[in-house]
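Here is an idea for our session: we take a single protein and study its fold together. Which protein we use is up to you, so please pick one and set it down. Once you have written the record down, we can walk along the chain together:
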Amino acid sequence: MAVNEASEVDFWTLPVKNTSNIDILVHPNLQNYLKKQLHDAGIKHNVIIDDLQKNIEKERNTISDEGVRKRQKKPFKLSQYHTYDEIQWFINNLQTSYPDKCTVFTIGKSADDRNLTLVKIGTKGKMKPAIWMDCGVHAREWISPATCLYLTFRLLDDYQRGNTAVIDLVDHYDLYILPLANPDGYEYTWTNTRLWRKSRSRNRKSRCIGVDLNRNWGYRWMEGGASQTPCSDIYAGAKPFSEPETKAIADFIMKHQYKWKAYLTLHSYSQLWLTPWGYTSTLPLDYQDMVDPVKRAIVSMRKLYGTQYQVGSTPDLLYISSGGAEDWAKGIAKIKYSYAVELRDTGTHGFVLPANQIIATAKEILAGLLTFFKEIK
């Protein structure tokens, strides 16, 4: 969830008190200048990604337009990244394949009239506590929707195969998963700019496009870590819920407000499980209640591949960030267990995480979620 005000320098991570490292994407024309400035200031530095464009081109070569057309004729591979149209096809096919446990419906439209497609996973019968999970809020974070797709499929398929942990979860909760919360921005990263972050709505009196959807929520809006400049990557919009994407999610949540047990929004990168509040360093009164089950979830995640996640508030582990979904979910919708989860990695690949890490990322998140949901019953 990076922050920048200029195209030449993009802070992928920011300096905070608990870390000595920051990740900065620099235009090639500024590379030598920045290195000299850092050297003269006595600041240690090293190059993690020497040529990001090469990484992007390598990614493109594996998912060219021809490759996309070929993949549409073959079984859907969860180990690959997919376009908006492919994702829509896969989601709709899930309802056909698992009609007793899966319901697919549209909760709204994006600024460019794409569907916001929600998947409900649950058994029929009495009303149950519900879990919300969304992915793909920031367009360039491809690992997020890829993880949501894996989770959705695994929950449905593992239930059918008799996985007792999954059966216990699905029998106890209704799970609502929105694999792609920013379809316009996501599609733009496929057709135009791979590192695009925001939505694609038009801003009045500005040539700059888009809003940071995770600064647009109507709780403590514009109280820090957000911008009123439309050209900024953290532009919060003209007003709270100015964007059809955030408004559609909020309207759905509030319509079913009485049933929510947890709210999770999946992002990348940094390997963090973030609690409210984002707008202030003051912790919620029930902060420890929120942290304890996550600590146990992180242990379960680490057991698979040794991947290290941390838990803490957004300002403590990242930076002040107001107008976020997790703050709104807790502050307005009164959902006790509300989090933003930052997926792999910690900077080696950043937002251009290779597809060969999709399954491992998703598997460890699933392990963590199974533990977490069991802990908060």
The first helix runs from residue 31 to 40. Residues 1-6 have pLDDT under 50 and may be disordered. The first strand starts at residue 9 and ends at 11.
